[in-house]
Amino acid sequence: MMFTTLRERAMRNILIATDLSAPSDRALDRALLLAKTCGARLFVLHVLEQQEHTEVFDRQELNATQQLQTYLAARGQGCDAQVKIVTGQAPKTILEQAETLEAGLIVIGLHQITPDDPSRFNKSTAWKVLHAASCPVLLVRQPAFQPYRKLAVGFDFSGFSEAALRLALTFNPESIDVIHAYHVPFEGFLYGADTHQEVHGQSEQDLLRSIEAVMQPLEAAAGGQPVRLTPMLCQGEAVPVFWQVCTEQRTELLAIGTHGRSGLSHALFGSVAESLLRNPPCDVVAVKTSPAASDSPT
Known about the structure:
22% strand, alpha/beta, 298 residues, Rossmann fold, 40% helix, 2 domains, disordered C terminus
């Protein structure tokens, strides 16, 4: 399926939160690429733990500023970037700065979570920001060598997955795989291939209608280049399906929608989204923007 979309619809302000670690360097590289691609302004935030302004603190602040400015001078040519060193608790400060700066996207580096301590993610800054952010949050896992070209969207026919598809389009990809994982109800009591084909056929029709409903309003006012959308119906549980498809298709970014007005609800985030965000197959961006609010994340 080929659609033409408004490629210029993109986030105006991007906030990258860095703790000066290697994962944060990958996130900063990705944020620089996104800012250049979207023509956005980039705010590079480093949060220092709240403490009295001693000589040691002043030295930490100066070192962080110099380190980030040196990094931007080397890799941020042509990018409108500003370094911000702020004192406070990291999750709260990141969220406050995102609101103040009217960020359309928060970018955070994903730290490795060891299999013997999966609960560590739930205590992390990334989790706390994801849980409370009002704008999309991008978790960066992979090194950023080039702009995102191949994306995927987890699609469950909700308004939030439609918002995820709209968000995916703002990254200017060449192609998007729209993945819907389905199961056959009471499969153990049903026999024959006809039943499976009927469920698959109905899911396929629903998926195509949903994609067209999202794309047609954008296409009607379009002036950009075409993007290829591929509906992908896969029988099975969502997390293994997303992992398999993203691995096989070499997906660079997976977009998922999350339910709940006040954050990531346990019903979705406690299972599918949490699993994907804790151990994603690629970079992942989460959005809970209501589709009625806007066609863009800003």
